[in-house]
Design goal:
Layout: E1 14-17, E2 45-52, E3 58-65, E4 70-77, E5 84-86, H1 115-125, E6 138-143, E7 148-161, E8 167-168, E9 171-181, E10 193-196, H2 204-210, E11 217-222, E12 228-232, E13 243-246, E14 256-265, E15 268-269, E16 275-279, E17 286-288, H3 290-303, E18 309-311, E19 319-321, E20 339-343, E21 349-353, E22 359-361, E23 367-369, E24 371-373, E25 383-385, H4 387-390, E26 393-398, E27 403-408
């Protein structure tokens, strides 16, 4: 849902507010619609993922951007559309990041009158206005924790190798953020920016599809042991074996949502009204609205063995300790029951959430609930399935067919259909 520049103590809500006024008037407007030249036959690409839910709090991918290509670490976020990097344009205020700041050139600026700028503005605010044909495409990002980022839209090449062994370097539009007020400025952030994989036309996925490079399909497999893989295109999709549900139009912006679900714990209904659910790889944890969260906590506590004692842990709000410290979720999973989400849109499509998909064992050896009360961080009635719940599952967002799928998978094994690592 949002870029995370420090280990998250709670969800950072992302609200993108676009400003029509040019922020940096010293940059002339040049450039135009991004183009990739000759369009190859649509293929697929696969990328290794790094990071974990705990203790790093995110999964990220390495992307090679620019000419010559340089590596950048991007937080994989299916909950937002815009890909962006912290950059030196020059930088007014930036966090410390793993790589040298991206440095744009004047020829890379996307003007306000460009269709990509119009799509970005309209998709996020419902309006688009250019005061002059020479205005650049500015944006402002504000966060619920009062953090913010100001930037300008640019386009540059992304180098990647496809499953058909071809090498492509499409010119894609992304954000160049040069005024950041997010996270801790004294610590090095784990990533250089965000990889926006939402369904909006400004997302990297949509742009690759528009160029005919990959189909408008993205999937990720987040390993419980850390790492995993990300893919664009449909060559890896197990269509006949996965559980599918139609994408629902979410009342909460442009999220990937399978619609409403009923919640069960240990095979019994928790008696809460159907929950609107969204999938969001940009959220480390899962968030339930107040009613289902409280129902879940009550059910959990009533079923727990007396060998587990509730304990305070700085990592998460609700934790338990055993007779001796736990080393992994596998040490404690037998003490907990599975959750199940039953989606009405998918002919009663079920998603089982075993204990290892909602518990986290901290460095203190305690087992903590990785499902948090979203109402306490401003999410209201939104229910987010974050990274913790999607671990060891291949999750597929198929914008071609308008459906979301999932299947249990060994996410620490990267599939091979030819070498498709980034150059």
């Amino acid at each position: 849902m949002a870029p995370r520049w420090a280990p998250p103590a709670g969800l950072v809500l992302l609200m993108l507010l676009l400003t029509p006024a040019a922020v940096r008037g010293d940059k002339p407007l040049r450039g135009g619609p991004s183009g990739a030249g000759a369009e190859p036959e649509a293929s697929s690409a696969i990328f290794p993922l790094y990071g974990d839910v705990y203790p790093h709090g995110l999964y990220y991918v390495a992307m090679n951007i620019g000419n010559p290509p340089r590596p950048y670490f991007l937080d994989v976020d299916t909950g937002s559309d815009l890909t962006w990097l912290q950059c030196d344009a020059p930088c007014i205020s930036c966090n410390k990041v793993p790589h040298p700041l991206y440095r744009p050139t004047k020829s890379k600026l996307v003007p306000c009158v460009d269709q990509l700028c119009a799509s970005l503005h309209c998709g996020l605010t419902g309006r688009h206005k250019c005061d002059s044909p020479h205005q650049q495409c500015d944006y402002e990002i504000r966060y619920a924790d009062q953090g913010s980022s100001i930037g300008v839209l640019v386009n540059d090449s992304f180098a990647m190798r496809l499953a058909n062994s071809s090498v492509v370097r499409p010119s894609l539009a992304f954000g160049c953020g040069y005024d950041q007020h997010v996270g801790s400025s004294s610590e090095v952030a784990p990533t250089d920016g965000v990889l926006g994989l939402g369904s909006g036309s400004i997302s990297l996925l949509s742009q690759l599809s528009q160029h005919g490079i990959t189909k408008n399909v993205v999937g990720h497999c987040l390993s419980l042991r850390g790492g995993g893989f990300l893919f664009f295109g449909d060559d890896l999709v197990p269509y006949s074996r996965a559980t599918w549900t139609p994408m629902a139009r979410s009342a909460f912006r442009n999220y990937y949502s399978p619609g409403s679900a009923s919640l069960y714990f240990g095979g019994r209904s928790l008696g809460v009204r159907p929950m609107e659910v969204v999938f969001d790889s940009g959220s480390s944890f899962t968030y339930f609205a107040a009613q289902p969260y409280q129902a879940l906590v009550t059910a959990l506590k009533s079923e727990l063995s007396k060998t587990l004692k509730e304990v305070s842990d700085p990592s998460l709000p609700l934790c338990w300790k055993g007779k001796k410290p736990f080393k992994s979720v596998l040490d404690v999973k037998k003490e907990f029951k599975s959750l199940v989400l039953s989606f009405a849109n998918g002919k009663k499509a079920l998603m089982e959430i075993p204990p290892e998909n909602y518990l986290i064992v901290t460095k203190y050896g305690n087992a903590c609930l990785g499902i948090l009360n979203g109402s306490e961080v401003g999410l209201k009635d939104l229910n987010i399935l974050g990274d913790v719940t999607m671990q060891d599952q291949m999750v597929i967002y198929d914008n071609e067919r308008g459906q979301i799928g999932w299947i249990r998978a060994p996410c620490d094994r990267i599939p091979k259909f030819g070498s498709s690592a980034l150059l």
